[in-house]
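Morning. Coffee machine broken again, so started the prediction first thing and wrote up yesterday's gels while waiting. Chain of 789 residues, entered below exactly as on the submission form.
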Amino acid sequence: MAIDLNLKNNSDKKVKSNKLDIQLVDAGKQIVASTQSDISLDKGEEKVVSFELEVDNPMIWSAEKPNLYRLVISMTNEGKEKIQIIGSDVGFISVTIENGQLFVNGQPILIKGVNRHDHHPQFGHYIPRETMEKDVALMKQFNINTVRTAHYPNDPYFYSLCDRNGIYVIAEANIESHGLGAAQQRAYDNDIHIADNPLWETAYIDRIERLYEIHKNYASVIIWSMGNECGDGYNFQKSYQWLKENDSRPVMFEQGSLRNTTDIYALMYATIGQLKNYAVDENNYRPFIMCEYAHAMGNSVGNLQDYWDMIEAYPLIQGGCIWDWVDQGIEDFTDDGEKYFAYGGDIAPDSIQEDGNFCINGLVNPDRNPNPHIWEVKKVYQNISVKPVDIQSGKIKIFNKSFFTNLSEYLVVWSVIENGVIVESGKLDLDIPPSSNEIIEILFTTEPKTYNEYFLNISFLQNKATNFIPSGHEVAFEQLLIKKPVKNQKTIKNTLALFTNETDDIIEVSGEDFVLTISKTTGNISKLNYNDQDCIIDDLKPDFWRVPTDNDYGNDMVKRLGIWKEAHKSDTLTEFDFKTSESEFVVSVKRFNKETGSEFNSTYTITGDYKIKVDNQFILAPNIPVPDLPRLGMQTAISTDLNNVEWYGRGPHENYADRKTSARIGVYQSKVEDLYFPYIRPQENGYRTDVRWAAFTNSEGKGFIIQGSPEICFNASYYSKEQYSNEQQVVYKHTYDMKKEDKIYLNVDYKQMGVGGDNSWGAQVHEEYRILPHEYNYSFILRAFESQD
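Came back before lunch.
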């Protein structure tokens, strides 16, 4: 171990015969290496002195194993008094690029990263130590292993936290000249761009040198970044050359593309197709690490698993850093004392240029409370996966994706879930080395029943607490389907009588503690009452629109798909038919929408046990081209008495078609108001997918249940779509604008399109997560429910 010390005599006399002691101490406070030297310095003299320490079998540092030593340097004067003691944490780490891959300590690691700005909701860019500690704690708990210090050096304490707790750092210089043009974005004028002006060489080198000198001793710094969106040219060639002459660690420079100013191809916001095209090109010899990707603005971070399926498939692609870590909002209060986070034009005079809520793009909000999409990041970034081999007999394959950690270090528990309820559980003792896999057999004894659904849940838990990860914290999980239910074909004899009452406007179907009203004008269910509890209180009508997300506004969804926003309001009822028997009543309705050329047809079958089966069919005319649908389903309003919701589906947090790998199938309970997530700029939120059933009940546990046939998606909210969609306020709307209403708006959907997330300025939802204009059919059942059911 080579040590260079910069010594300077600041006293007013010569220092002679002072003794310098250098010791390397391990975590157990044992001295593992030491050396001594006599030091003499003239008055004001400064010099660099080099030492060598030999360490036998040193512990290596990595994000998984942040092994550190303490370097203690003390100086003793002629009187044998210790006159100065300094110390520093040091670690042994090797960072190289071999065969087109980034290696740390001989392993081709993956960068599971985020970009981090210095931000505090009250103090702006001043970051208290406890906030930095919170950042690192959350990153460790959500499986984030890398931080790019976007776009400037951070407080030294942050790097020491990364050293001690295991976070790789891409250390970025504070160089950005975006206003003069950025490479990879648009053409810029080399004649005026300072990146290519030799007169600026000293200024560039100065910032690069300071970046290096301040951070060179941190074990966590594995990559140097020369700046952000600052062009490329002569001054970066000189800066790159300076770094390579002074250090062995790789240089990342997104603006350098594949030129000679970077060791890593760091294209920001690359598409999955671009990743693959790079990976299969045999001429490429640099690792591809996206300096920015998965723009987390508002309700976002869709299709992250798809990115990582591609990343893990090709050695040359080694991950990236999500943009970004924290929503950059400033805490403020309304005149009534309601807290909210200000942004953009909220906090500057009208004369100051601003960009609305464009800095609200983090995985956590300014208070560091997690945004829903961070749960998807945790799942996708986890270092363990499980695949079925012969799930019926309990055989599975466990993959240890860690590079330095044996799975023996985790407590592993499993459970068999029957219809969302644990029926059997146990523990596993694993010994799977890093970068290995093993087939194991779980000897569960549950005999699956024909009409029930079964999953195997496996959780990997922190066995021993660390600084920021408590014992028992779940670091990874997998849920595997054991058996789908077989649809029950048995016919249950309905013994209860149905009564009908018809007027010019409605048909009313009733029975004991049951009243259903269907409009003959619209064909919609307009009222439903079970056990003297009003359930449906507004029309159950077709719905094709969702409240736009930030990504939707960025890709012009409102204009592209806007034909669906008010489509249901112009439906024409073209057919209304009903037939009845002693224990069954069937209503068939057909609706036609001239603008879209679509039909939304419903059949309501009411049986003598007071169940209502709703069969919906969506049909498009072959000669009228229409765009994708934002959603396909039905919306109604239900009584606010029914503010308890329980569901069997994905949860507990919100999830969408392209962001649901982190949401396990299970039975969950919530208050309706807690389904709502207060995005700083309100937008689509609170959705749940792959739902088998959802029940809404009052304080006595009575209400109704929606059963998918086989599955639905739903959300329930006290806020109508109209609260979100005032076009004059969309940029500046805040959580305090949302006013709780005296009804609960309920969507019962076939599907809603995904949220996307490749970027927030044009990228659309991936095709596989859209609702393409085709014919669709879906069904669900309504019936009375009591919580003991």
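DSSP finds ten helices and 41 strands in the chain. Going to sketch it on the whiteboard this afternoon.
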